[in-house]
Design a protein that fits this description.
Order of helices and strands: HEEHEHEHEHHHEHEH
Number of helices: 9
Radius of gyration: 17 Å
Helix content: 25-40%
Mean pLDDT: 91
Largest sheet: 7 strands, mixed
Distance between the termini: 25 Å
Number of strands: 7
CATH architecture: 3-Layer(aba) Sandwich
Number of domains: 1
CATH class: Alpha Beta
Strand content: 5-15%
CATH superfamily: Alpha/Beta hydrolase fold, catalytic domain
CATH topology: Rossmann fold
Shape: globular
Length: 255
Amino acid sequence: MNDVPGLTDDNALWIRRFKPRPDAGVRLVCLPHAGGSASFYHPMAMAMPDVADVLCVQYPGRQDRRNEPLIDSIPELADRVFSVLLPWADRPLAFFGHSMGASLAFEVARRFEREKGIVATALFASARRAPSVHREESVHLRDDDGIIAETRRLSGTDAQVLEDDELVRMILPALRADYRAAETYRYEPGPPLRCPVVALAGDADPKVTVDEAAAWAGHTTSSFDLRVFTGGHFYLTHHQDAVLREVADRLGRAA
């Protein structure tokens, strides 16, 4: 049964709601990393307490959307996600983004503040340096083997998937487009967010230092907290329970 008025066919394409919680006080929007899909957040969606209705975003060009045109620009992707989420803004929104997804979450939250005056309940920025901290990166310009090597280095995709030639051919276009989006993203200065920001980082992440994660503090006029876990870029797969508690506790207090 549809408990959200105003949904369109676009929502069925973009939003995965693995365990609907129609009575939750806040909607938590989860945005995947480069090469990732909505199913990455399936464990979080299933384990989340009733405090939050979890909406997992499915980007074009992967899994059941693999025949759709890819989007290789964070601003364009943010425009699309913002539009798709409008019907879901009938109650407070919070954002959780991992890696590229954190940059995207920031830009979507900016659009809600700028266009609708809607301030998020919280922004959780995982495994991503602050928008104002720039690194020159060019993984998207490598050949296929180079992109696969980088993905293996970060342990972002199941190693068995990367050994299957057919599967690799299926995911490489999305990987390249996402790396291009993440690496060509440039922060455009503007008013800081008015929502609380929580940065989460692995202490051995080659893609972001603790100081680069701490720089998220400069992007909000509200509270800021930094949580550091042991591990690399995908620290959260080993600290799923702790991350879930962190998110649920903060959303529960806000509600």
